[in-house]
Amino acid sequence: MHVVKKIEIFSDSVELAKIISALERGGVSSYTVIRNVAGKGVRGGVFDDSAVTMLDNAYVIAFCSPDILKSVVEIVRPILNKFGGSCFISDVMEIRSMKCVSSL
């Protein structure tokens, strides 16, 4: 196991392409996008009852090594500041499945 950084971003689907591009420019090689998420934040509730997908919220989860995190944040932060959204970063442990097989 080793420590990696977990990046979670909530934003409008309209800005999703900019956020994905920023992650890739920062060196994040893989991510997961969940569209049409609902919830409640400091600005009130966001619900998935809209027929217009451009107004939906999206959730992006990505993992990266700690050494590239600063550059990723520097690229993503201006997008969130301009268009809105939330970003959370935490330390998590990654278990590489290939190494686990040899320990069985």
The number of helical runs is: 3
How do the SSEs run, as a string of H and E? EHEEEEHEH
The biggest beta sheet is recorded as: 4 strands, antiparallel
The count of DSSP E runs of length 2 or more, i.e. the number of strands, is 6
Head-to-tail CA distance between termini:
15 Å
Low-confidence stretches: none
Q: Which structural category do the helix and sheet elements fall into?
A: alpha+beta
Q: What's the helical proportion of residues? A: 25-40%
Shape: globular
Radius of gyration: 16 Å
**Binned strand content:** 35-45%
Strand order of the largest sheet: 2-5-1-6
What's the average pLDDT? 85
Can you walk me through this structure?
- With 104 residues, the protein is an alpha+beta fold.
- It is 31% helix and 39% strand.
- The chain contains three helices and six strands; from the N terminus they run E-H-E-E-E-E-H-E-H.
- A four-stranded antiparallel sheet has the order 2-5-1-6, with helices on one face. The protein has a two-stranded antiparallel sheet with strand order 3-4.
- The chain starts with a strand and ends with a helix.
